[in-house]
Amino acid sequence: MLYLVATPGRFYRNEMITQLLWDGSDEVKAGNSFRQAVRQIRVASETGQLSALVTRNGTIGFEASDRRPIEDVLAAQLRMQGAQGPAMQDIRTYLHLLDVLLGVSTPFDSWLTYARTQTLAKTQAVLDAAMAGTDMAVARRAAECTIELEPHNETAVRFIMRDLWQSGAATRAIAIYNDLYAHLDTFFDQEPEAETVDLLAAITLDPEGQRSNMRGGPEKPRITLEVVAADKPTNTDHDASLQAVLVSDLRMRLGRFREWEIQPDAARDPAFLSIRCYLHSVGDARYLSVDVERPDLGTVIWSEMIDAPNTDWTRKVRGLVVNIANALSVVVSHRKHHDTNAVIYDKWLESQTLIGTWKRQDEEQAIRLLHEVTGAAPDFGPAHAELAGVLNVRHILRPGTRHTEEAQVLALNHALDAVASDPMDTRAHRVLAWCYCHAGKFDMAEFHFEQSLLLNPQNPMSLASAALGFAFSANTARAQELIDDVEGLPLTMEPFHLIYLAASNYLCGNDQIAVDQCAQGVGLMSTVGGWHAAALMRIGRPDDARARLHSYVAEIADQWCGTGPADPQAVITWFVSCFPLRDKTVREDLRATLMSVAALD
């Protein structure tokens, strides 16, 4: 019920709700439980305790005149009433509900985690505005509520410390700092920010506050950074893949700092600092050049060269982060309790590099490395997500083979481990969605695709992948929305995104666009030629379709892993079997289109 109330006006398939809440249960029992729950909700609705529950055409949802998500409604009420009003208690009650419902099912737990994060973020935005106001009583209450919800929020901690110092309670201000330090140490293995430490020092040296401006000025705005690959071609595809992995890892590490903000790829405003990375090779040796630039001035602040970044990356990147922090006068803690073992992390980075080449021999080595990583570090969620992802595409990298039930089960288990390890990981939800597609649980697939988009709505990989997932799930309206979104981010697209979009466009009936995108992506993936030939046939170019099918069969024959010869019928049969299509008529239409091309000979 909470899931429906939290998204008023949205309707979900009954099967999706059943799978979400009774994941892994017997289907008959889950269906009975669902119907019983609906009856109980209807009784509550009739007594006026709840809004009207509506079921129609196999879907369920709550009708509401106000269709804002519940976290937006709570934030609006808090903005009107202030932190001293009843809205704050409503927020506490909602967060408590999210906590007590944990454990219903793994997918529902992931949504609860997301809902809690969103509610805290929107609540905090209102409280931050109140803390920045001129009414000290209102600001103080907002800071107290902030610390209650998020004891690690140092902006609020500094506010309370200054307020107590100004009131002559330096000892209590120091106690507030000690509480913060203990919380950060216990839950984050971090130390307080330099600004908080400086405030503590000022209070300690001048308890009476006679030599300092106790209120202090406004919080310093966070500077913005972008972390990007240099606009230079790498020597090999393997280097290009490794460069992308290293840039992504550096961006993730810098994103942990609260002193600055990492800009998304599609940011409109230029970043204060641009960190550009370029991987180049000399013989067998690899070097990563890192330039830190001021885009507004067109100047390079400093450069650094990292030797052999594919080995001992954890140690080397920590030094790089410290240098960046020093350039910005930020103190970086050297504590490393939560760092993954360096050897394990190197293996994970190498596996990502191998996966990025989309080559069969690299895929085999990547799977071996990821099995080693998940065996040695079972709580390392990213490795489980990568392993599930590569298992989902093995049959595509091995033309002539099928996605076996054994591989499906293994991939699903690893994907579930990834989401359980980090429910806020976009990649984990995206991979789990694909696992559910292959398992035929398309409603759960759509749920996790949506989760991945909620967590990172600007990620082009999530957008392109979800567009294809929704197209496979026969939800072409949603697929088209996402196609439009991802095509609005052309500068951030990887080449293989074109193939995701080409297939999505074909399934949405955008045949000419699919033809154009396939033409740009020749050779990128083993499935390009099939979509290309089918799209050419549908736009009335049979001769071109026949020629493309011929070249496609020749391409696949060189990679063929099937038991029989790679003749056109065998290649078409394999190609059509690759995709988890919900609508059987779509699969048969795709097969018929390609067979009609083959019949032109």
Automatic annotation (TrEMBL):
InterPro entries: AfsR-DnrI-RedD_regulator, BTAD, TPR-like_helical_dom_sf, TPR_2, TPR_rpt. Coiled coil: none annotated. Keywords: Repeat, TPR repeat. Pfam families: BTAD (PF03704), TPR_2 (PF07719). Gene3D superfamilies: Tetratricopeptide repeat domain. TPR repeats lie at residues 426-459. This is Bacterial transcriptional activator domain protein. The lineage of its organism: Bacteria, Pseudomonadati, Pseudomonadota, Alphaproteobacteria, Rhodobacterales.
